[in-house]
Amino acid sequence: MCQRHWRRAVKILAMAIALSLMTALLPAQAQQGAAVLFQNVRIFDGRSDALSGASNVLVRGNKIEKISPVATPIDAGQTVAIDGTGRVLMPGLIDVHWHAMLIRPTPADAIAGDVGYNNLLAAAEATDTLMRGFTTVRDVGGPAFGLKQAIDEGVVPGPRIYPSGAMITVTSGHGDFRQHSDLPRTIGGMLTRMEQIGGSMVADSPDEVRVRVREQLMQGASQIKLTAGGGVSSPFSPIDAVTFTEPELRAAVEAAENWGTYVVAHAFTPAAIQRSIAAGVKCIEHGFLMDDATAKLIAEKGVWLSLQPLPEEMRQGLPEGSVQRAKADEVWPGISRAYEFAKKYKLKTAWGTDVLFSRALAQRQGAILASLVRWYTPAEALAMATGTNGELLTLSGKRNPYPGKLGVVEEGALADLLLVDGNPIENIKLIEDPSKNFLVIMKDGKVHKNLIASGKRN
Question: What are the backbone angles phi and psi of residue 320, rounded to the nearest 5°?
Answer without folding.
Answer: -60, 140
